[in-house]
């Protein structure tokens, strides 16, 4: 067996004992020198007394085995199988068979647990009835949990857990209380990463808890003891909370704080003593050399020891490892002996490269230990390092974390060990992502506090700066670890590390991409955030190294993912949705495009086979997903079939069966020359499958003609970059949004604290009771603010720093360039996974909303250009027919709606090419039927807001005195109208008469629906409010009601914009639809006015209720919108046509003069002042866009047309207008408004159902 860094030696080249036939043969050294060396390494124990003289005479390899056995036998200690006072199995674990309540996920080792129901409880398998006992709990989340002790008689449920029943006692660090039926304040608040120690003294009858080794005091005394009473370790935890228990299977973290207490599981004392003795022998070998010339032993620095092939030393080490290797498979010994020994090697400081001894020791491990032994040893060593990193106390210089990371780096520098860990441990259950996280402890101060607020702020800022510098050291070590993982030059012992990492990384993404996964194997999102930043740094460093070696390739600043990765089957996207739908469907419908553009041919027979496989897999998946009866899942938990399958879902099964072939571009398509390309499962791929060779493009198979023929970077980096984008979409963005809440909480508590201090200053000295309560509140607010401020310092340093912002910005630009390249392929754009568009939108949102004001987005390099590129993507693809997914189309529409709410992003939309702007406006003006029109309408409203009548407000006037829930909402931004886009809208509507008619007809239809729904809902709300039983109105109903009102207002504003920009659509009656549109508009305006302006009407009563959720429902927004339409209609009337146009409004059957009088505040002169408290434009100050209206009475007297004198002259359909049209061929009659509206949807006559072939004007003949 060979190992890198040492001499190639085989285990079979020596024996553990020398041949009996050649007792004097010792290799290079003579017998005396060998005996002296062995006596020095294995000194006789003082316990042997005079009998040991025989061993000191001459010690050879023939006698060494027996000598070593005798030395180790002295360490054998008679251990009782069961210590008095403890009952249960010797190995203490969680009782996942009968000792639980609720739904829980238990780790394979039966020591970790995750709550998966409302309030789940579980106890251990061992109980204690006398003596002093302790166990530790590693808190992985800081939510609601109750940790402590319970008896077998305790019965728990989904509402009551440990501490809620008699004879159960618990500590709750989330609410800082202790529980035993009743509850009182106790202890300190815990945080994720803390260690809770639970101590019980059954001799004194007390229970005590410790937090991170510090006693919280006696929690309970005089607990029940005696015959029949025994206490089990137990916990109750809420949904998704998680902990890990240590009953003694590993060394306790803080044993010196409770030395007189025993762990529930006894430590392996005998093995521990043997391991330490053998380690001492090993250290002696490392520090002793044999000078064969001088025939003496020489002491030397063990740090410079190397394997040099000396048979004497190797055979000596073989004897040691013959006993040492089996011990290193036990987690307790690995953590207590081996890990501490390796850490001691690095204690001298300096870089990891200055301590080569660790590399030599690992060579020795692989040489002298069996493969299964070294594999288990390395696995346990890494897991111990992970636990130590996560749960070590935070000191100001992060010394513990740095120490553990340095050892991890040193181990991973060993090539064979690194590859084993990559293949078997890293990214399984997410240890790599956990180790690349920096988790702060809230109780650790980051700054000094002073009396003055200014000094406190400066001290806080200095503390944050120092913290950031310390964290940068940790981050650099974590990046070094990832760079070792991404090394693609270490091919001496097999496949390079990068390709092992890549395949494991894709499996890691697969496990986290599906919501059906076991939560115990999913990576927490807070760790994903740190992982992605370190991975981006490592990728960019390798990318730029490749750029320096190959100047023709692109730099990381211009990085993107080529489009062929999305359709050539080389990269596994699991069951993630594509822009064009299912991959199997795309392969069938776009196979000709694949052949023409990408030179990829798909065998139709294979497509048919894949379709049948899809059907079979759907049946299997449906059966596998049926719920089982198991409630608690422990070591016997079977991994779901979808998780262990080499391929997942329709996409993978298709790629596994489809034949993908490459043909020469210069040859005709008819007789393609097919070259078979292997499409393998992730774990079966090799370097050649990824990087390609000898004409094989690897991951870049099938380059489209539109894609430039330029080297990008190493192909493996492209796939890792693709995974980084996927990882951001899975959970990173969501976690970034959650972290922002801390900043908001800090602000709220700061305001509350300041307000309390002002009240204390104003409190009369005689009211001591009030003063005492205020001081208590002040203390609570100050403690909470202190706690949140420290947490915010950690978050700003690790999540929202300038460097992290640049990482997210780089990811945004990668997505933009990837989308642009994929879009250039035409129909093949449909193969792109949806998450690229999602990440482009979400990363921009994160940069704009989540990062602190000190990290201004405008200062980012190329900010305006990036903004314009993203604007072009949103403008083009929100109505792209190649995108079929409803969710992604809605996301694009919402992103565009948010984009036009802010001046900078709106200017970016105006900077895109005119052709794209016109196409965007044309899509926005498409009819509202058969599509989600609300967001489209909202975009048009935002383009108009600031130009309409009384429409320059940010918030409604009646809400100005209230505090908005979130001032950053797009709807609360200052008006920023776009005159350029308004001009494009006017051009389109004026030039395309058919589009204008269909668009406005759909707007009027939706307005009619929205306002009718609103009126129906407020009727129900009013009826519910008037009932004697005072039933509460459903909040969902209130929300829907407010939404319908807001839609009505926004639709009215779009009509106002249209009338202002293109008045001829309504007023130029040479257009066939102008009269009909104007009559429909008048009808709707009158309906709105009648409903809203009637005194003491339904609308007034509901508005006066001021129900929560209906804050936006008020007279002002809807009436000023109607007024704006009326004003612009009047302003655009030519003098010669004003009578005819005004008559449309005034002759409508729904027109009521009192509505206009109400609007202008001209109510009944005899009404009291109390009765006149209604809305009026005279009492509102909407802004400078206030224009007077002509007095309604004068208008009606001057322009109201003459009324028909006979019912025979009225339209038999509406009875509102004169007959003005006659149908062909049946000669029935009606007004033009009725027949034109009817013919939009139906060609049959109103009366006889004959098909109408034409409509002529009708004029009543003069009477004779």
From TrEMBL:
Residues 684-694 have a biased composition (Basic and acidic residues). Residues 1211-1249 form the RING-type domain. It catalyses: S-ubiquitinyl-[E2 ubiquitin-conjugating enzyme]-L-cysteine + [acceptor protein]-L-lysine = [E2 ubiquitin-conjugating enzyme]-L-cysteine + N(6)-ubiquitinyl-[acceptor protein]-L-lysine. Residues 72-252 form the B30.2/SPRY domain. One of its GO terms (biological process) is protein ubiquitination. It comes from the Eukaryota. SUPFAM superfamilies: Concanavalin A-like lectins/glucanases, RING/U-box. It holds the Pfam family TPR_RNF123. Gene3D superfamilies: 2.60.120.920, Zinc/RING finger domain, C3HC4 (zinc finger) (3.30.40.10). Keywords: Cytoplasm, Metal-binding, Methylation, Phosphoprotein, Transferase, Ubl conjugation, Ubl conjugation pathway, Zinc, Zinc-finger. InterPro entries: B30.2/SPRY, B30.2/SPRY_sf, ConA-like_dom_sf, RNF123/RKP/RSPRY1, SPRY_dom, SPRY_RNF123, TPR_RNF123/RKP, Znf_RING. Its EC number is 2.3.2.27. Its main location: cytoplasm. Residues 611-630, 684-707 are annotated as: Disordered. GO terms for cellular component: cytoplasm. Component of the KPC complex composed of RNF123/KPC1 and UBAC1/KPC2. Interacts with UBAC1 and CDKN1B via its N-terminal domain. Interacts with RIGI (via N-terminus) and IFIH1 (via N-terminus). This is E3 ubiquitin-protein ligase RNF123. It comes from Cyprinus carpio (Common carp).
């Amino acid at each position: 067996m060979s190992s890198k860094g040492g001499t190639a030696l085989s285990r079979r080249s020596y024996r553990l004992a020398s041949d009996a036939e050649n007792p004097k043969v010792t290799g290079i050294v003579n017998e005396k020198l060998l005996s002296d060396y062995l006596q020095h390494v294995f000194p006789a124990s003082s316990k042997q007394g005079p009998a040991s003289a025989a061993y000191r005479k001459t010690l050879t390899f023939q006698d060494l085995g027996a000598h070593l056995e005798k030395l180790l036998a002295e360490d054998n200690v008679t251990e009782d199988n069961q210590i008095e006072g403890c009952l249960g199995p010797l190995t203490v674990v969680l009782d996942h068979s009968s000792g639980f309540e609720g739904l829980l996920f238990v780790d394979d080792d039966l020591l970790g647990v995750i709550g998966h129901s409302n309030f789940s409880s579980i106890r251990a398998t061992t109980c204690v009835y006398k003596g002093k006992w302790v166990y530790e709990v590693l808190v992985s989340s800081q939510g609601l949990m109750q940790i402590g002790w319970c008896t077998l008689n305790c019965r728990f449920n989904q509402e009551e857990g440990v501490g809620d029943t008699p004879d159960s006692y618990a500590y709750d660090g989330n609410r800082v209380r202790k529980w035993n039926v009743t509850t009182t304040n106790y202890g300190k608040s815990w945080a994720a990463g803390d260690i809770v120690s639970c101590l019980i003294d059954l001799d004194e009858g007390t229970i005590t808890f410790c937090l991170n080794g510090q006693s919280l005091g006696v929690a309970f005394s005089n607990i029940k003891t005696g015959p029949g009473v025994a206490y089990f370790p137990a916990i109750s935890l809420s949904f998704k909370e998680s902990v890990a228990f240590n009953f003694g299977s590993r060394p306790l973290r803080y044993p010196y704080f409770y030395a007189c207490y025993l762990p529930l599981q006894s430590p392996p004392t005998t093995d521990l003593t043997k391991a330490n003795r053998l380690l001492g022998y090993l250290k002696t070998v490392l520090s002793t050399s044999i000078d064969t010339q001088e025939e003496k032993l020489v002491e030397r620095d063990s740090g410079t020891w190397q394997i040099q092939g000396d048979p004497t030393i190797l055979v000596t080490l073989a004897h040691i490892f013959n006993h040492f290797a089996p011990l290193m498979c036990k987690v307790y010994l690995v953590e207590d002996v081996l890990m501490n020994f390796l850490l001691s090697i690095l204690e001298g400081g300096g870089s990891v490269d200055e301590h080569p001894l660790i590399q030599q020791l690992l060579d020795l491990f692989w040489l002298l230990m069996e493969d299964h032994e070294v594999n288990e040893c390395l696995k346990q060593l890494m897991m111990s390092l992970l636990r130590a990193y996560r749960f070590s106390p935070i000191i100001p210089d992060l010394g513990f974390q740095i120490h553990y990371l340095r050892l991890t780096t040193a181990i991973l520098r060993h090539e064979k060990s690194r590859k084993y860990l990559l293949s078997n441990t890293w990214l399984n259950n997410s240890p790599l992502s956990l180790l690349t996280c920096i988790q702060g402890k809230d109780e650790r101060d980051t700054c000094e506090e002073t009396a003055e607020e200014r000094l406190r702020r400066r001290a806080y800022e200095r503390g944050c700066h120092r913290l950031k510098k310390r964290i940068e050291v940790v981050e650099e070590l974590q990046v070094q670890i990832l760079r070792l993982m991404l090394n693609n030059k270490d091919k001496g012992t097999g496949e390079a590390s990068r390709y092992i990492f890549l395949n494991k990384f894709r499996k890691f993404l697969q496990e986290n991409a599906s919501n059906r996964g076991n939560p115990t194997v999913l990576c927490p999102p807070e760790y994903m955030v740190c992982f992605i930043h370190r991975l981006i740094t490592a990728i960019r460093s390798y990318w730029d190294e490749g750029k320096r070696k190959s100047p023709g390739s692109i730099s990381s600043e211009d990085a993107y993912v080529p489009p062929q990765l999305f359709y050539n089957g080389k990269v596994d996207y699991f069951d993630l949705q594509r822009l064009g739908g299912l991959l199997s469907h795309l392969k069938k419908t776009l196979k000709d495009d694949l052949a023409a553009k990408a030179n990829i041919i798909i065998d139709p027979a294979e497509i048919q086979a894949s379709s049948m496989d899809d059907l079979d897999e759907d049946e299997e998946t449906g059966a596998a997903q049926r719920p089982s009866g198991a409630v608690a899942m422990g070591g016997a938990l079977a991994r779901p079939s979808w998780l262990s399958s080499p391929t997942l879902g329709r996409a993978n099964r298709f790629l596994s069966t489809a034949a993908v072939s490459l043909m020469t571009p210069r040859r005709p398509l008819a007789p393609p020359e097919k070259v078979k390309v292997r499409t393998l499962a992730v774990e079966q791929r090799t370097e050649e499958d990824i990087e390609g060779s000898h004409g094989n493009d690897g991951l870049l198979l099938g380059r489209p003609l539109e894609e430039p023929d330029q080297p990008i970077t190493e192909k493996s980096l492209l796939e890792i970059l693709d995974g980084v984008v996927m990882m951001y979409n899975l959970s990173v963005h969501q976690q970034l949004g959650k972290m922002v809440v801390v900043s908001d909480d800090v602000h709220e508590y700061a305001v509350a604290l300041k307000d309390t201090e002002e009240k204390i200053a104003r409190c009369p000295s005689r009211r001591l009771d009030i003063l005492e309560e205020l001081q208590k509140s002040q203390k609570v607010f100050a403690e909470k603010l202190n706690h949140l401020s420290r947490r915010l310092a950690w978050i700003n340093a690790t999540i929202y720093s300038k460097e992290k912002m640049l990482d997210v910005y780089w990811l945004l630009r990668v997505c933009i360039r990837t989308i642009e390249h994929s879009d250039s392929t035409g129909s093949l754009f449909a193969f792109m996974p949806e998450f690229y568009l999602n990440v482009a939108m979400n990363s921009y949102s994160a940069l704009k909303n989540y990062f602190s004001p000190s990290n201004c987005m405008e200062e980012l390099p190329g900010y305006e250009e990036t903004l314009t590129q993203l604007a072009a993507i949103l403008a083009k693809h929100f109505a792209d027919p190649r995108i079929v997914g409803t969710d992604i189309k809605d996301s694009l529409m919402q992103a565009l709606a948010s984009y036009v709410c802010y001046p900078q992003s709106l200017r970016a939309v105006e900077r895109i090419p005119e052709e794209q702007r016109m196409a965007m406006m044309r899509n926005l003006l498409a009819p509202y039927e058969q599509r989600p029109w609300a967001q489209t309408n909202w975009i048009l409203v935002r383009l108009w807001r600031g130009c309409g009548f009384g429409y320059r407000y940010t918030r409604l006037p009646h809400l100005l005195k209230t505090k908005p829930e979130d001032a950053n909402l797009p709807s609360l931004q200052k008006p920023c109208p776009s005159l350029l886009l308004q001009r494009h809208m006017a051009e389109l509507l004026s030039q395309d008469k058919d589009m204008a008619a269909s668009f406005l007809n759909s707007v009027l239809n939706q307005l009619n629906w929205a306002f009718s729904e609103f009126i129906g809902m407020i009727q129900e709300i009013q009826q519910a409010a008037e009932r004697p039983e005072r039933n509460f109105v459903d909040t969902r109903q209130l929300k829907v009601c407010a939404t319908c009102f807001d839609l009505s207002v926004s639709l009215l504003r779009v009509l106002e914009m249209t009338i202002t920009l293109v008045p001829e659509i309504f007023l130029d009656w040479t257009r066939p639809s102008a009269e009909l549109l104007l009559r429909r508009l008048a009808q709707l305006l009158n309906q709105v006015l009648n409903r809203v302006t009637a005194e003491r009407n339904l609308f007034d009563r509901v508005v006066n209720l001021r129900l929560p959720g209906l804050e936006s429902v008020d007279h002002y927004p809807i009436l000023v919108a109607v007024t704006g339409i009326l004003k612009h209609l009047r302003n655009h009337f030519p003098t010669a046509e004003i009578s005819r146009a005004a008559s449309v409004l005034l002759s409508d059957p729904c027109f009521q003069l009192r509505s206009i009088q109400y609007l202008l505040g001209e109510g009944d002169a005899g009404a009291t002042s109390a009765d006149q408290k209604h809305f009026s434009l005279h009492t509102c100050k909407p802004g400078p866009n206030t224009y007077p209206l002509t007095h309604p009475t004068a208008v009606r007297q001057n322009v109201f047309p003459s009324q028909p004198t006979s019912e025979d002259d009225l339209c038999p359909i509406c009875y509102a207008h004169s007959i003005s049209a006659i149908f062909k061929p049946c000669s029935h009659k009606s007004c033009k408004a009725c027949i034109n509206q009817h013919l939009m949807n139906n060609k049959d006559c109103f009366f006889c159902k004959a098909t109408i072939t034409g409509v002529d004007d009708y004029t009543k003949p003069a009477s004779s």
